[in-house]
Records
---
Amino acid sequence: MEAKLNPHIDPHRDDEGSKLGMWLFLFTELLLFGGLFLVYSIYRMQNSEVFAHCGKGLNLTIGTINTIILLTSSLTVAMSITAIKKKNKKLSMVLLFITLLSALAFLVNKYFEWAHKIDLGIYPGSEYLKTAPHGEGLFYLLYYFMTGLHAFHVIVGAVLLSVILVFVARERITHDNNQLLENGGLYWHLVDLIWIYLFPLFYLIH
Amino acid sequence: METQHLNYLQETGGRKGIFKWILSTDHKRIAILYLSVLSVFFLTAVLVGVLMRLELIAPGKTIVEPDTYNRMFTLHGVIMVFIFIIPGIPAVFGNFVLPMTIGAKDVAFPRLNLFSWYLYVLGALIALSTLFVGKGAADTGWTFYAPYSIRTGTNVILAVTAAFILGFSSILTGLNFIVTIHRMRAPGMTWFKMPLFAWSTYATGWIQLLATPVVGITLLMIIAERLFGVGLFDPAIGGDPILYQHLFWIYSHPAVYIMILPAMGVVSEIIPVFSRRRIYGYKAIAFSSLGIAFIGYFVWGHHMFVSGMSETARIVFSLLTFLVAIPSAIKVFNWVSTMYKGSIDVRTPLLFALGFIFNFLIGGLTGLVCSALVTDVHIHDTYFVVGHFHYVMLGGTAFAFFGAMYYWMPKIWGRMYNEKVANIGFAFIFVGANVLYFPMLILGIQGMPRRYYDYLDEFHFWNVVSTVGSWILLIGFIIMVSNIISAIKSGKKAESNPWRSLTLDWQTQTPPILENFEEIPTVTEAPYEYKN
């Protein structure tokens, strides 16, 4: 087992390959959301006024705060990679921990945002949306679907980063063996990237 | 030959019983795991198909009710498409052979590979469970077209979930192969020294990776629409069913090339070996695989010529569809040219490869009839289309699958099959497939619609012929399966390289050892330098 962990002996280790695999996986994630973006753009074109009206109904403050939180967390995860490369294990762990806290904060905000809307009776299948204009039903379905799928990715990313944090603590991820951390970072950037598109498409449209 | 080492079938990794298999990350064992699950589902779907043909032997009710018939063609389609033909050649032979043909010890991510298999089994079991829970198997056809898929009371959500999970498994397999090919080729094996099977697996991997997620998300939207009914696709509440068709075919047409490209790869391996000749136009075949994969993304609209699209869109989609014929034809010409002046040794794998070319010609040319706007209006949704894609799918891909089965059987199990029985089986399968499917082309031109439970008397004769074909095919399958099983159990011990093939998969011990090579080989020659 000892020998396996040593990067200079283990013949099965291939950092480049592992990075390539992660990038390919990110392509599939983009296309997964791509289908939703396509549906969004078609229905927004057909119902542009209703969509703009609904967009104003979302909580811009929470949306902005969440955007800042996610962007910052992308920074901290990138910094934790640099930290581990500079052999600063402790700093790397702190930065990863901040990233995880950001993920949690994002989800808590999301929870309050959704809960508020659901309290108002605005959710797919609700009595209110059944009588509202068709475009409004579509807007909120896509809103819940796309931000929901995104939130699911936040959770997956957070779990992945938690595992990575443990690995850093146990020195399975070290200054010369940190591809897993880099891959976790790549995944986290994707989560961030998708949100960068979701935020204007739902919160900022006129 | 130097001393024999423990082969992968003897090497247990300290595990016992079934755990030798279901916990092993050896690509060869995973290939056999796929093969065993896939065979069971394939034979089940064959049986369903035969029963459907039996129902159609005469007008009116013969053996089942109309509702049951609808569920049968859905089940047949879902199993054949998502569980047999899409994973088929890549998951079984890609897994077993690909790492060896490029001189690698395993795939890039062995644990992910095993995980894909678990996803595959989970998806397959969920698909099966639609039969037994709730209101029974889905009756929408494998395309799950809205709005019917949103309104029917049957188990659409479960069936769609199964397809989603199977898609995920397919993505991970494709990803694994792409990284394997990029990173793990043996020293000296440049891209253009790679066997053509690796090229076609590579092209397939990209389609799996980039097209599958779109259908995944579309299927999730069907679930959302069924649960919340907000009018994404159901026109009664303001949705757009044509949008569903677009999203569905954006994946499902490229998926057609996921099905056929690996089959073409298998044929490109078999033909030079049994012709003892260097493959003609190696680069043309390699690039045509990529060409098919690329153009294949932009032709989905040809499934929708009569669903309502602008004239311009229809012309563009039709033109692009015709373009796919070019790389496909390049391959056929190159295979035939390879055999020209070769010293041809007619063995079972070659018979299946030749069968592939014959059937694929019919399947491909009838595809052009479908892709021409004028003729498509007439034959759309008729048996002509059913005949066309069965020629490509069974006549093409499945033939290549069976050919690959015989070709690599000595490698996989170290045993030979009975050649005479295998050839008799081939004859039944070849004749059966043609008697089964050719009448469908005629029926389609006469105007018999597909997916109908009943038909007019004027279609009776060709329906009887087609049903008889299904029996001949079934006999062929029985002969083939029993031959294969008895070969695995008690076949003659195979030579190390019975076909005298030059590719790396045959240079290892037979059956191969764990991690395939004693020492990673260095490659100096192109893969098919046969000298007579």
---
Amino acid sequence: MKRGLNLFLIICSQFIMIFYGLAQTSGSKNISITLPTVVLLDVEPAGTISMSFTAPTEAGLPLTNPTPNTTKWLNYTSAVTTGGSRTISAKVSELIPGVDIKLKASAASGAGGGTRGTPGAEIILTTSSTVFISGVGGAFTGTGANNGHQLTISLVPNNYANLMSQTNKQIQITYTISGT
Amino acid sequence: MKKVENTVSALLLVMLVCIGSQSKSWCQSLTVSGSNWTVPLTYITEAGKDYVNSQESATNQILLSGSGTAFLWIDGTVKISAHYTADPKWNNNLLIAVKRTGNGTLNSGTTISGNTNYINILNGSDLELFTVHNGCGFCTYTFSNTPMQLQLSGISVTVPSDAYSAKIVFTISY
């Protein structure tokens, strides 16, 4: 009789334990990774570009502007903290009297992913940095030509009174990605 | 006669306790050894590139050992499940997968099956990885040092820069 009572109590206790869902046996290990901020910028393909005005063949006609150059592509990799954003700016090493050097970036294309930047309107380059792409978040563009932002660089006269004959004038365009 | 009666009672008691409680003691147990895994990064050396998307740990990064108990008419199978939880911060674009790279040491009659390919585990919700079985009438069966490999994928500059850590929790149950 007593044994029967004990058995009954044990059964009851087990069902109580079921209902209270006693923890199953478990153990754990940790996995961790640190992703640092990253910022890398490149212009591809490497090398200089050459652009020349063509002299008019008849008195009274203007110079013929060089065909805008579209061979350069801007590649970048950007890793930012939550909410972070970067801009890309450009400047020239010096100005050419009477000539505007203009720059326009296309929307990012090709390989890549993430929050790539948004190009602004065409800018006239000066010796001070001017932002022409904004809103770069965590992103990568892919490498080489046909990946990233295609650049359109053009030369146009801005004031004939200031024009001077120039030969092999070298201008350096510097691109900078900045922000956190 | 009395001895037989006592033995039967003891068996019943063990069975009831095990069925009822799913307890940690002699019905089933799990030990997780090996080491934590700090995922190495291959640094980006060229503008436009992303990180290598996935990394794998050593094939024996984690070792699982445990036991289950079989009864006369109750199938002697335990299942090993896993999930992860942020500890303290994780990004769910980082995908954690685990696979079993060997059997470890099994006692006589014990078989182990499943999880020989990577299974992505979930945040906070257990997913069954593999089972350990022994059809003996009444016994405690064991597996020890069953090696597990981890994989982390989704590694990208598109994931906000930060230090991330998660706890991978393995659970044994009937």
